């Protein structure tokens, strides 16, 4: 037995420990390993061969068949195929074994076509000698198979791809070739085909597309070589970036620029050139969106913080936080808290808006002394919450020169059509290079050397303007020895006759990967499992034992070959690399067997757990993903054993924990994603899974995925009933009630909800389940709030708060605290008591900027009822400032309601109009309807009070059109204001009807604010119509205002009542 040196390739005796030729240490041989790879199968069979036995003697028949098989084998092997086996009269050949070529599919099609031509020639010979002619038919199909280790001489391939090729052959007419859809996609620019009706193939549930091969175009040459060269063809795009940077610096504002283009088109290279051009004058930090697309919401922020603060993997949590504190200085503990939470250095939870504020403050501080450039890679993989963050930063930065430079594939603009429509945002679309520009790329890559014109032309044609295609193709040809440099001239001395590159980069990269030595492949594969950016230590842990000491040298070799490159921006690890392009990583990963992937994912988690220590929270989502993948692949391979189930449970636990934290901070999209995945990898009746389903259902409700929520909750309910779990059944019932409320079934909702909630309260009380009781009383508060019965809603919210505190549920406490404040303001609670209790709530939510802004505005409204207008203005302005600082548009608009009511109680209707129009226009730009309808109705009142009747009526019609039928507040408000408008015009019948309708809508409620308003409007309608009988409405309004403690409203109403002469009114309706 001999050993092959990985360095020089020479053979050495088995007992040698060092290579006898170059002195390199000889590693023990690696074990044989099966692989997954994409190959093309050619399956050809003779038609009617049975009758030949009747025509020919056995010896003659053998000669005919041998002549046929020899001719076909020669064709197949000439084109690079490996004849795997003969099955009767059939031949099966594989293109892609022992090594993938980038043009395997095209080679196979050419071989199939040549077989037909050869058979025509052969038939002339057979007819002349034996009087027989052969008829064959051929099927060609491309796809993934499992193959034996090619280095051990194994040739067996298995998979559906083989079966489909055989079925295509059976469906083909005599002397014809049928190719499958995957093969056609890879060869469509090189073949002429005729599409046929999709075939019904045995064993396939659906019809299979197929094409009749008519001809194959002439063969072309091709080549490629990667090297760093000058940026080509992007002068205009580069200038756009420079201009954006100059504008940001000159105007001290934030600009977001997004480079959009297909993979490999040059986004990263343009970014590098831009940073080289202006980076010396700016601080540059980097972040990337991980390619998993599975809930790693704030990972770009993690990387920015690490780079800016100099945090490495050797730092424990305390050291990392200390570095963060040093970076930000002693005057910003709030920012440190929020950033630490976002990057997993703290268990303290904050809302998404708070985290957004923290990130904005962080970047502002980094940009104090010089401009800041934040480079974000692969934005198309970002979660919605991170995209929201980028938009938030774009909209809210002031007084600092900041450029956020992102790159993304075109799918980003498909997902977010308005991504670049914001005032300070733009995108630059990178189109493919022209042929001349592609030729310039080649010149830059090969330096001063020359290149055969035919080879150059083929590269340009194949690359189709994609610089990465050019680099990778040229690199492969040089690595394969097909291009030789002699006397300053690159040439292909052996020609590139059979070389043609398919139009997919996957095939190109798979071919390059197959050219690696086994040792290199054994290192790059675990790196692909670790991620696009990976630490050297992780690869050492995951690599075969015999190669662990060689990992640094092998990674260096892979870097030389442009598969990976050192990543100096990755500060978490002492030695880190990144793949030259993420598609190389994906292609490498796809080549691993599923069982190998599972093993490596698990090993990565165990390594990360060991090296991360107390920083587990920072990596929880990522490690949960790795365990999820390990479990998934094992499940796909067959029934899970105990170990597989344990992996799933561990992954579920981590994903669920990350989901709980995401939900606690208000990141509902990430929470739904994580909880859904956490539930999916557990057995159907696993208690941990059943416990997740209710919260998953509510998370899905929060993001508006009602059908998915219904599915999750229905499954949870079935499980609860089948297992006889009353607690789970009650919990699920509450979430289903919430689903019914949010999905719009309000008319019958309250009647159905009350008995169900009462039953749930009974179940939770018996079990002393405070978390369940908190949810139950929250739902009860929604019941009363929907009916505008605010006193009962407040009571339910208080009960919910008590139980949430007992359960330690901060999210339930915050949600119910703000609900309670709303009920205290709008309900019958006396103003002084409401102010006292709302002030207490303000203290409770002081750590959450969004909730604090909300409560400040409600407190402003309450203060204005007492006539404390200046104090009220200070409060609502503080609330508005908090909302604006968070950059949350909907809540900023919501503040206009409180501000508008404060100013109207103060009698400053122009100021009220300014505040309300601010909110209305902001909501209009957002395309929002629900809140805008309410703001429109109140804006109509402010405009009416200034005597602009037509404008006021127009606004009431806007409110009417926008408002939902069950929005009692808005439905009453627009009717009241329009009644006032019509009364001024002396349209008495319609005015009185609308005023009465508004009051009737509010009679069943205890909304003190709205009832006072509706009664006042009705009284003044009668006044404008000259009917003194409306005085009763004003008198009732005064009583209600005094009961509420609304001193300001009562004063206005007395003035209005004084303008009416005394008169006996109609029979009064109790209010």
Number of strands: 21
Shape: elongated
Specify the structural class. Answer: alpha/beta
Regions with pLDDT < 50 over 5+ consecutive residues? Answer: 220-227, 498-503, 1063-1067
| Main sheet properties | 8 strands, mixed
The DSSP helix count reads 44
Q: What's the CATH class of the domain at 838-1058, please?
A: Mainly Alpha
* CATH architecture identity of the domain at 838-1058: Alpha Horseshoe
Please state the average pLDDT score. 86
- CA radius of gyration: 37 Å
The proportion of residues in beta strands is 5-15%
CATH topology of the domain at 838-1058: Serine Threonine Protein Phosphatase 5, Tetratricopeptide repeat
- Percent of residues in helical segments? 55-70%
> Span from first to last CA?
101 Å
CATH superfamily placement of the domain at 838-1058: Tetratricopeptide repeat domain
Oligomer: single chain
Outline of this structure?
Helices cover 59% and strands 11% of the residues.
